[in-house]
Structures are given as C-alpha cells and as structure tokens.
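so im writing up the methods section and need the Divalent metal cation transporter MntH record in one place, dumping it here so i stop losing it
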Amino acid sequence: MTTHQHDNHSLGNVHNTVTTEGKTGWRKLLSFLGPAYLVSVGYMDPGNWATDLAAGSQFGYRLIWVLLLSNMIALLLQNLAVRLGIVRGLDLAQASKHSYPRFINFCLYILAQIAIIACDLAEIIGMAIGLNLLFGLPLIWGVSITLLDTLLLLFLLNKGMRKLEGFIISLIFIVGMAFLAQMFIVQPDVIDIAKGFIPTKLNNTSLYLAIGIIGATVMPHNLYLHSSLVQTRKIDRSEAGIKSAIRYNFWDTTIALNLAFFVNAAILILAASAFFGRGYHEVAEIQDAHKLLTNIFGKLAPALFAIALIAAGQSSTVTGTLAGQIIMEGHLNLRIAPWLRRLLTRLLAIIPAFFTILHFGEAGLGKLLILSQVVLSLQLGFAIIPLIHFTSDKKRMGNFATKLPLKVLAWVFATLIVGLNVRLVIQEIETWAATSPGSSDLVHFVISPIAVGIGLLLLYVFLRPLFYKHADQPIYVPHGIAAALDNLDAVSYEEIGITIDFSKNDQDTIRHALMQGGKKAHYNLIHVVETAGARYYGKQVMDNETQSDVDNLDKYVAALIKLGYKAEAKIGYGGPATAIAQIVKDTGIDFLVMGSHGHKAFKDLIFGTTVDSVRHKVNVPVLVVKPQKKRKDS
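--- predicted struct ---
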C-alpha cells in the first residue's frame, strides 16, 4: 500500500492534527492527547448531571459504586474501540458493515441513530434549562432556540473546531473547580462516601437510576466516535509503532475519563450531602441544584453552573454530529450534507421535548432527561457486543487481538449491562400493564413484540460472528475500485486539473481533459477525502477509506503515465469545494475539468453540489463534463 508523507507539525495544542513519529517521552504522549477529550466531553453532558443529581438526592451516597463501575466499563470499552481503530483502520460502524448482512446493518444504524437522538435530547433540555436559569427564558422558547444553535454549530465547524473545544474543556474545568469548592462548603461525610463504594442491592427505583448512570457514562455513540478519531494520528505502521500508539492512547483515555468521573462524583456527592442529608429526597432536578448553589454561593456560582450546562450541551452536540456522520457512512454507505443530517437529528430530538413541555409541563423535562439516558443504555449492547467480537478476532487483529483476561472482563461487563437492561425492560412493561389497565392491548400487541424483536436482534448480533467465520470481504468504502483506462488520444494546456470521484464518470472526465492538453500538458488528478475524520483533522487522516482512495488514485496516475502522459495525484481533505480550490491555487492549475453527477435538484440539496461551489472559488476555466446518456437506436 502506498502512503504519503506529511509535514511534521510542531505541537500547537492538544487537538492539532499531530504527527507522532520522532517524538519521545512527554512530547510523544502529548501528541496523542486529544481524541479522548472529545469523547470525555460526552461523559459530562446534561444527561449525566441529571442522573447524578437524582441518584444523590434520592439515595445519598449509596450509588457511588455504580458511577465507579460505569467508569471502569467505559475505560475498558473505549480502549477496545481505540484498538479497533488503530489496528484495522476501521471504525466500529465500518467493521459492522463487513461482518453483518445489509438488513442487520440497517437495524443497527436505526438503533445507533435513536441513541444519538436520545443524546441530543439531553443536550436540548440542558441548553433550555441553562438559558432559563441564566435569563429566565421560558423552557419552550429555550427548546425552540436550540434549532438555531445547529446553524451556529455548522458555522463554527467551518471556522475550526479546536478553539471551541479548548474553550469548552476549560469551561468544564471551571465547573469541576466550582463543584470542588462546594464540596468543602457542604462538608460531606467522608466515611459515608467510602461506604458508597461498596455495592448494594438495587430496588426498582435505584435500578432505573443505576441504568441511567451507566447509559449516561458508557455512551454507545462514543465508541463509534473514538474508533474513528484515533485514526487521525499518523503512526508508524510497524508492530512496535502500533503497540506504542495503543499504549499512548490508553493513557489519553484514562486521564480524560477519570477527570470526567471526578466531575460526576462531585455532582452526586454534592446532591447527597445538600439534599439527601437534609431530608429533601425528591429534589432531583437541575433547577434545584441551581437554587442550592444560590443559597451557598450567592449569584456567581449559579451563573457559572448555567453557562457550564449550556457549554457541556453544546460540546456534546459537536461530538454527536460527528458520530452521526460516522454511523451513517459506516453502516449505510450513505453520505449527505452535514447541515441536513444535523438538522434531522435535532428536529427528531426537539419533538419529544416539545411534547413533554406541552403535555406534562416544565416539570416533566427532568424525567425525560433521565429516560433519554436509559434509552442510551438500552442501545449499548448493540455497540458493545460487536466491538468485543471484532477486537477478539485473531485472524483480523493478529497479535493485537484482545487477550483472554481482558476478553473475559469485557464479556462480564457486557452481560451485566444487557442483563440489567432486560430486567429493567420487563419491570417497566409489567408496571405499565399494571398501572394503566386501559393500555394493556398496547402493551401486549405493540410494545412486547417490539421488545422481543429487539432482543432477538441482539441475540443474532452476538451469535453470528461465533458461528459464521466468513472469508474476508473486500472493503466497501463509498467509492468503487479504480477502473482501467483505454488508450486515449487528445489535443493543449500546461497544468490541467481533473477531479476524480471513482465513479463511472471518471473515464469521460479524463478523456475530455486529455483532449484539451494532449501529451504536452501536465495532469493533476484531484480527489478529496470527505470522511468525518477528514473534515475534522485534515491531512493526518489515514483511515481505511483514505488509504483506499490514495491507492486508487495512484492506479489512475500509473495508467496515464503508461500511456505516455505526465500525471500526478493530488489528495485534498474535508469539504470538497474548498479543498479543490486550494489545490488549484497551490499547483498553479490553468484549466480544471470536473465530472458532474447530473443529480436532480432535490438530490443536489441533500448531497451538496460541488461544481457550483468550485466555480465560485477558482479563477480558471472550468469544464463540466456531464455523464452521457446511452442513445437508443432509432
């Protein structure tokens, strides 16, 4: 496989796209820091705050052990995701695509999308509550405003997300400090806290909350995200290089997730000593925590709390958007314009929030927040089970397959989560049937069959890799394999750019370009990698799709050189129009030939039209080659 060298970047900040070769010690570790911080942001979102406050106020310190356990589960699973991404160059969704049939992948995609919507729901409610606490804005307006922050988010994604991430992480740091300061003020009982680390039996309410805590901590979409983001680090692909990359990423994950654990534990302990200790057992809302802060600190801390709540929600929205892109591309091989996917997810999440406020009043939002975290937990099995299978596969992971003790531990955790979830689902269905006799038909004929269907799907996902050790399938990335080129004669220009998208139009596009320049011109074959990672990290991406695209482009170049033309490959990253315009400028191209897909207008709106954007951005002639329709014989 051909790889291409990148310039060595000095380490500007932790989220910079970083080359890691030739660095030692601390600088080496720092060059790997980054992906896990993006992931850990999701571990401190409003959903976590809600479950921690509810657990602390209702059960005192008794559920701290659940928090610690879910942190350990998260650490193990995120490290498996890292291993999958580094060793196989695939994210979890792409690996699922190779291992399961198309229909199962579609089901897995739907479930993962529901999890992302549930997560987005938590961000919407967090943002609405934050605005309500800061400016007294009614919650229904706060929820409506969250539609606008979608547009703000896409604007910031174009401006460079790393500055925003730095800002958000510093805000979360401030919140952590605020909670720490409050700990000293409320003076929790240290012995009681220590007792909280001893596991206790869970009753109905505490089981529901414990599962909420696990769902809020071990987020399914974070596993997809992490396995994709670690591929952004350019590493030495030798065995020693991969081993050291896994080791440094382990430290990255451990530091980031333990910081998140301390913030969550602080919230739980604070709620336990302030509410539970004083007899307020049902005060489980984020708004109440805000009141509590006002009593202790005066005006500053509550404002800080509200700002941090908004910030945590916003940063989780960013990671949710990226995860949405990764699961859609991985499971379905479908790539649509980011603004549209973002808007769809947000709209689907806003509807239940609106319905809850209108139907149950503003008090219902806190319960909806915790429900959203339970939904996340119910989806976990569908991400964890394939992940453990893929990383244990000796044939594909080689020496990096998960070792037996770790594998046993991972299956124990998976069984625990699935077992708790099954118990919860049965318990909730029974409660429903008992409390509202009128809806028993709905329970028997709609909800129970759905629950059974999802259970059978989980069983299939678990059993298939065990019984069906299949031959390696070719890797399907959203492009085909480069086609061979025939001998092509043509006419003259000096530097000609040709955009390549590995579709059947490439042959026509190249033929038209060669007619312009003949054998005298120099041809630049331009292809842009558009994966989620490429949009985010640019040049450092070396995932499976990038590698495949580079190889395919090299085949085209080789074919042209063989026919006696002067050609070279140019790879761009991220948004196609911007990347193409940059290559045109940097290479001094004086004529650009582009293939057009001939989409209908609606399709162009969804998939985006590159040709128009490029024409506005370059100052050279652009020839657009439309695919030719087959002529019918008259």
